[in-house]
Amino acid sequence: MYKEKKHAYKTFAEDLKSGEKLKNVMLIHGEEEYLVKWAIDSIINKYVSVSTKQMNISVFDETEMSSSDLVTDVCEACETLPLFSDKRVIIVKEMKALSSDSPQAMKDTDFQLLSTCIEKLQDEAILIFSARNIDKGKKLPKEIIKAGREYNFDRLDRKDLASFANKRFKQAEKTISNANMHLLLDETGYFNRESDYDLYTFMNDISKLIAASGGVIDEKAIRELVTRDEDTFVFNLLDSIAAGRKDKAFAQLHNILGDGTDEFQLIGSIVSQFELMYCTKQMLDEGMQVRDIASKLKANEYRIKNIAKYARGFSTDKLSKVLSSAYELSAQITSGLLKSSMALELFIAGI
User: Fold this and answer.
1) Do residues 319 and 277 touch, judged by C-beta distance below 8 A?
2) Which pLDDT score is estimated for 1?
3) Which of 117, 144, 241, 260 is the most exposed place for a label (fewest CB within 10 A)?
4) Do domains 8-152 and 230-350 have the same CATH topology?
5) What is the pLDDT of residues 149-202, one digit of tens each?
6) CATH architecture designation of domain 230-350
7) Within the chain, where are the H helices?
8) Residue 144: pLDDT band by 50, 70, 90 thresholds?
C-alpha cells in the first residue's frame, strides 16, 4: 500500500514537541531556506531564554573564516556551558565539507577534531550544521547523521503548500475558497521546474493578500497581487544584471523557457513591468510618494513599492531605451523575424 511521504517540517515539529526525539547534533538543510530558518529559530526559542540569547548562541559561517579556524572555534563553543538557559546552541553555516571531501574543504586533522567534538558533545549543547546544498555521501554529513538527526527541507507539495497558506489566513481571520486557493497556488508558479519562487516570496504574497483584503481572499486580489513566476523572472533578471552577472541572467532565461512558460506571456510580463517601472521612475523623480504613484497609476501600492526599488537603480533615459527595446522585442517575435529565445537573449544583452 502506498504511504504518503511526510515532509521534514512535520517530522521536525513532532521531534521538537516531544523533546526526546530531538538530537543534540543536527544537519538542517534544503532548498526552502524559510523552513531552515524556522527550524533553527524554533530550537533557539525552545531552549534559550530571551534574555540570554547573546551569551548562549554562537553562529559560525565558513564564508567569513577559514575551515581550520572554524573547526577550532566550534569545538571551543561546544565545550562552553550555557549561562542561565537550558541549552547552548551552536550554528555552523555553509561548510564546504558538507558537499566535498577534498583537503581544500577540510583537512584530515580538522575532520578528526570535529568528529571527536561531535562524538563527545555535552548534553547541554545543541550543534546545528546548516546549508542549502549537501552531499550525504561525503564524510562530514555521514558523521553528523550517524551521531544525530537530518532534516531536509525541500520544496512543499501542493497539499502542504495549501496548508501553509490556510494556516496563515486563518491566523489573520481571513477565509479563502478551495477554488481560489488552487488559483493562488497556480498563479505563483511555485511548482514550475527551476522556479525561483520560494516560501519567502509566498509569505510576502500572503501578507499582501491579508493586508489588502477584507474578510475574504478573492480572485481579483490574487490576480492583482501575487508575484507570478514571470514577474519573479523579471525581478531576478534585474538583480542579476545589477550585480554584473549577465551569465546568470541568461541561465534564468533558459530555465524559465525550459519550464514551458508561454513565450508571449513572458514577453507581455516584461513589457508590462518595464512600462510600470518607467512611469514609476518619472513620478519618483518628480518627488511623488509611492502611495500617490499607486493612486495615479491605479495600481496596487505593494506592487508599486516593489517596482520602485528597481526603478531607482535606473535613469529615466535608460529605462526609456530598455522599454523601447522591449516593444521591439515583442514586435520581432510576433512578426516571426526572430526566434523568441534569440530575441530575449538580445534584449538581456542590451539592458
Assistant:
1) yes
2) 43
3) 260
4) no
5) 999 999 999 999 999 999 999 999 999 999 999 999 988 878 865 567 889 989
6) Up-down Bundle (1.20)
7) 8-18, 33-47, 53-56, 67-78, 108-119, 139-147, 158-171, 178-188, 199-212, 219-225, 229-242, 246-258, 263-285, 290-297, 301-311, 316-335, 340-350
8) very high
- Give me the residue spans of the domains in the chain: 8-152, 158-225, 230-350
Picking from 64, 59, 10, the residue whose alpha carbon sits closest to that of residue 39 is: 10
Class of domain 8-152: alpha beta
Answer yes or no: are the C-beta atoms of 88 and 24 closer than 8 Å: no
**Placement of cell 511623488 in the chain:** 288
pTM summary value: 0.70
Parallel, antiparallel, or unpaired for β 25-29 and 88-93?
A: unpaired
Q: Own/partner pairs for 335-341, CB < 8 Å, 24+ apart?
A: 340/257, 340/263, 340/267, 341/253, 341/254, 341/257
Query: pLDDT per residue over 68-89, tens digit each?
Result: 999 999 999 999 999 999 999 9
